[in-house]
Design brief:
heterodimer, A: mainly beta, twelve-stranded antiparallel barrel, two-stranded antiparallel sheet, 3 helices, globular, B: mainly alpha, 58% helix
């Protein structure tokens, strides 16, 4: 029997939907020019004052479990040019099982260095309060594997995951290519050991120079690349033993309206991984969202005390 | 313990001076190698047109549709941008931004698009 437990309450869904509608209709869109990664973070931050509303979804089928879809809503805001804050609301649905709200994540990314370097670092701190039924696969750490995705929701959601996650994000640009590497350190606050993971991605726009004509489907609006990620064990059993890893091509398209569509088929590289995961994402960027409401004025019109 | 107070004060003061130095006039911070870079699209009409479209998509929201500045965001038609800064310096500034002062880094744009933006910005001088 299909259950519907733990869905978000209509009491806050309606105001949230109204707010989202207002934002989308009252604000100008901005071109996202996103990297096409789903798990890997690049060194690029959200522009200050911009809000990106996005959804990222992962569809897969573990060998011994039901087909599932992990989904999330993502609200990414550029607090400062060096600080990006992001809220995720996660949910999961599985065939012959239920659709449930699995929790939230709040992440912050900081750029410690003022300038771009050969390798530009970004520091990432996240608190997540999710349950074991979460299937968004926003990172793979420790000994995470296909078996974790097979449990029935009623059982899996009993497991509480209040976790701190730290990432060292390294990114480089070279001749139009972006290479990003993430080292992931995650700890369940329930006295569990630190778990480790990684994610790497390489991507490039299909065309580097912009067209002199307005266009929606020209090559410059597409970016393609490859992404790989997986677990690296935990504090007591570090390494690749009993870990899962995924690799796949990824592509996105950024429309002039501020909409970005992304897609990536990803393939499990060993028996601990789900054989195939199909990821797709939709994002919409709203420029200077609070500035438009008169709530957020920044800058003094000068840089370094002089006109720019 | 008392001996440490001046040391801590000195360190704080030094950090302040260093921070001030780092955030000083960006034009003086451009490395010579970047300053001497040549714009491969210098004065090319197609690049200027492409740069204008890029400007509309990425920059106009803050700097105004015609780069005249908007609310508290600065104009890009000033002598500082049009005359004092050369194309290499503008290219460096767009890549690095001035993230402590609200100007983001545009390193996510390919180099070619940054140069097209520079071409457009410099073309505003003629309009002025």
């Amino acid at each position: 029997m299909r259950q519907n437990v733990g869905l978000p309450s209509p009491a806050w869904v309606t105001p949230a939907a109204m707010l989202l509608f207002l934002l989308l209709t009252q604000s100008n869109a901005a071109l996202c020019q996103e990297r096409p990664y789903f798990v890997t973070y690049s060194q690029n931050m959200e522009e200050p004052g911009n809000l990106e509303v996005a959804t990222k979804n992962a569809i897969g089928k573990p060998q011994d479990g039901n087909r599932f879809m992990g989904a999330n809503m993502e609200f990414e805001y550029g607090v400062k040019a060096w600080w990006t804050s992001e809220l995720y609301l996660d949910g999961a649905t599985a065939a012959h099982d239920s659709t449930i709200f699995t929790g939230f994540r709040w992440e912050n990314r900081f750029r410690p260095l003022a300038r771009e370097h050969w390798i530009t670092p970004v520091l990432y701190v996240e608190f997540e309060n999710i349950n074991g039924a979460d299937k968004s696969l926003l990172e793979v750490v420790g000994h995470d594997g296909a078996a974790d995705l097979s449990d029935p929701h009623a059982l899996a959601r009993q497991e509480k995951k209040r976790e701190i996650e730290l990432k060292l994000i390294l990114g480089s640009n070279f001749k139009g290519w972006n290479a990003s590497e993430n080292l992931i350190f995650e700890k369940n606050l329930d006295n569990s050991p630190w778990e480790f993971g990684y994610a790497v991605g390489v991507s490039r726009p299909l065309k580097l120079a912009a067209s002199a004509k307005k266009c929606s489907f020209c090559a410059q609006r597409f970016a393609a690349g490859v992404e790989m990620y997986g677990g690296l064990g935990d504090r007591y059993t570090p390494g690749l033993h009993d870990t899962s890893h995924y690799l796949g091509p990824t592509i996105n398209w950024s429309a002039p309206s501020g909409l970005t569509l992304s897609f990536s088929p990803q393939f499990g590289l060993n028996d601990h991984s789900v054989a195939r995961i199909y990821r797709f994402g939709v994002s919409y960027e709203i420029s200077r969202v609070f500035g438009r409401m008169g709530l957020h004025g920044r800058g003094n019109g000068k840089v370094d005390g002089k006109e720019r | 313990m008392k001996r440490r107070v001046p040391i801590v004060m000195f360190l704080i003061f030094s950090a302040g001076v260093l921070a001030a130095a780092v955030s000083a006039d960006w034009l003086t911070q451009v490395p010579p190698r970047d300053r001497q870079k040549n714009n491969p699209y210098h004065d090319q009409p197609l690049a200027i047109q492409a740069g204008r479209l890029l400007f509309e998509e990425h920059c106009a929201e803050c700097h105004g549709e015609n780069a005249q500045g908007k609310k508290k965001r600065p104009s890009l038609r000033t002598p500082r941008i049009q005359t004092e800064a050369n194309e290499g310096e503008l290219h460096w500034f767009l890549i690095n931004g001035n993230i402590r002062h609200g100007m983001p880094s545009w390193s996510k744009l390919p180099d070619q698009q940054i140069w097209q933006l520079v071409s457009y910005l410099k073309s505003l001088k003629a309009e002025n």
